[in-house]
Amino acid sequence: MHAATLMNPYFAVIFTSKLKQPATGYAEMAAKMEQLAKQQPGYLGIESARDTALGITISYWASEQAIKDWKNQLEHQLAQKLGREKWYQHYHVRVAKVEREYEFNHMDDVL
Amino acid sequence: MHAATLMNPYFAVIFTSKLKQPATGYAEMAAKMEQLAKQQPGYLGIESARDTALGITISYWASEQAIKDWKNQLEHQLAQKLGREKWYQHYHVRVAKVEREYEFNHMDDVL
């Protein structure tokens, strides 16, 4: 998914994780959390990809407060607890302020 | 790969991309660039994952200058040009300053 975030300032939460195997029920929980995140104030977008070794999810937010509110949201709290108990071998969360950005789009019509 | 970056301040370059298909030669070029990046001053680590829809690569750097130096490195410049001509449908680069972070490790020995 392409996150439309071309506005400043905003924040990225970089979430990298390794799952224990089998991670039964993880994909469903992740999809549910993504739907819930979209309803939070200050949510700007989400992008994720997963290889066998590593999953990366980046969510974008309008403010630090929006990040804290989402972290403390009740259903998300329960999901985080379940994640630590059942699914995650490791995770690392980095909160970063986006300072500059640029994009490239391939133009089919100028070939 | 787990990027060991528990020091502040530092920067993350969030690179998200969509490839044209087939992307012949892309994986080899990406691996070569990762090897070159590791030799740059200020390099701290790299993490990447790719789904069919989206690839995410995050590289970590000690300073903005280190990021600029890597962007302008000669072989990397050629790879970027080739990428725009051959492989990328779209990409988005965000330079972000990591403000805080935390980790979770599952402890097998306390189960």
Order of strands side by side in the largest beta sheet of chain A? 2-3-1-4
Taken in chain order, the helices and strands of chain A follow as: EHEEHHE
First-last Cα distance of chain A: 26 Å
Distinct helical segment count of chain A:
3
Radius of gyration of chain A: 16 Å
For the record, what CATH class of chain A applies?
Answer: Alpha Beta
Helix content of chain A: 25-40%
CATH architecture of chain A: 2-Layer Sandwich
Low-confidence stretches of chain A: none
Main sheet properties of chain A: 4 strands, antiparallel
Structural class of chain A: alpha+beta
Largest Cβ-defined interface: A-B, 40 and 40 residues
- What's the overall geometry of chain A? globular
In round numbers, the mean pLDDT of chain A is 91
Q: Estimate what percentage of residues of chain A fall within beta strands.
A: 35-45%
| Secondary structure tally: strands of chain A | 4
CATH topology name of chain A, in short, is Alpha-Beta Plaits
Number of domains of chain A: 1
